[in-house]
Amino acid sequence: MKTRGRNNMNRRDLLIVGASGGVLGAARAQSKMPESIQSPLNVRRFGAVGDGVHDDTNALQKAIDYACNNKLQLAIPGTPQSYLISDSLPIPHGKHDWAITGDAGRVTIMQTADNKPIFEFSSRGNDYRDTTNRAFNMRNLRAAWTRNQSIANSESTMFLFDDGGYADFQIDNCENHNGCRLVATREVQAPGRPLNVWGCVLSHLFSGYAASGAAIRLRTNPVEGMPNILISHLYALRQMAEEELIHLAGCASVNIDNVEINFGRGPQLVCWGGTTEVNVRSWRMEQCTIVDTPRKVIFDLSGDGPREGTYRFQGVEMRFTTIDSSQPHSVFHASAGAQLIIDGYQEVATTRKSGALTVATTQDARIQFRSMADINSPHIFLLDSPHLADVSFATTEVLRFFKDGLTPGMNHAPNDAPSVVKGQVIGAAGWIWAIEASLDADVTAGQIELMVFKNGLPIDSGMMKLAVTKGAGGARVATVIKNTNHSDYHVRPGDRVHFEISTDQPFSGPKNAIFNLMVANI
């Protein structure tokens, strides 16, 4: 009877707690709960010290296993020193609804082993479709190594995804102090151990000045596909970095929002291996240097072959950039099948030691400029595209000129219509950016050169010459810089424009030509 009464009392207490949630009921319930659940779970209860001297590897691993297996939030208390580890900390596979959180700002975990990650995600060969880790959160953490890690130590990554499936998770307010990478996938998976990451948020990340590699590198082999990724509020100091800030391969529906880079060198965003539908908003680079690299581009959207993806950039700002290269470089480069939309690009206070920079280059890709702020440097060009039909602006005016009876040995002959006296009248303010020639036959010998005149005066730049050489025929394009240091390129309503045409003595081929002058309000 006593035993039954004692059991009845326990049930009554539980009913009181469940029904009323009152202080008395809660106190009674807590008095019966295991000690491990009465207070917030933190790593100190598993023996972690956090003094920067004791090895906390085993204690942290026990705490992580317990939190993940029981769907709990694990707190890592702040410490003036760091939590020292001598090996990576594997995350149990197939677990969901758990969190690991630093209590104060960013709590430092210090790795003493070279070329070892801090947190490692692996399914240990299990099929990720049955053991996907999902709905988890890691935040307020700083990764550091006792020695700076070089780019060769690519395993020295804060969050390394090896194999398995990971969905609907967030990594927030985390920092790579001096390792190689912050978030990365292992690039070559073992046979039968695929990796898939999707539906994740990577936000408020910091890549420190001593970091040698990318902040985010999502690239797998074989490619499994990584859709629906949000990268938000990423700040990086890139003095020692030897690879791009973000590298994406096989990713789809990617949104990148608010990125700031200081002291970067070379490429910063690479979209490769079938990465499509990328939207970038507010990307700012300050005191970066354009140097010789194999890619020769800042935003490499070329992939590894023809792609039908769309890449949108809204608000790209480059401030105090130094051009120091022996080969031409570009800000954006897209390849066949892609569509590139640039809505807001600004260059401020660029200096040049050597080389030149083109805003956009393409290889059979479509490109659309929606808004361009002033480009002040004479060494920055707007566009280099072999196909004018693939380029468009928000507003464009096309001025058409005719020349009948092309003959050998012409020397600065004016176009026939509109007349050289009156020229063609500009209707809206804008920038001259390209010339298109349409010929009635191929040029079988010699070449055509033309010079553009504005208000009776020649435009003072060889960039405005269009040369059609032997063998050329049909439509030909010469792209032109948009640059405020060349005021001749800027036209206002009422300005008059015409051509003068020259041919060499052996010239033969077309008899008639149409020249289209493109003016854009950019």
UniProtKB/TrEMBL annotation:
Source species of the chain: Bradyrhizobium rifense
TM spans (from-to): none
Family matches, as InterPro entries: Pectin_lyas_fold (IPR012334), Pectin_lyase_fold/virulence (IPR011050), RHGA/B-epi-like_pectate_lyase (IPR024535)
A matching Pfam family: Pect-lyase_RHGA_epim
Protein name as annotated: Rhamnogalacturonase A/B/Epimerase-like pectate lyase domain-containing protein
Domain Rhamnogalacturonase A/B/Epimerase-like pectate lyase: from-to ranges: 42-131
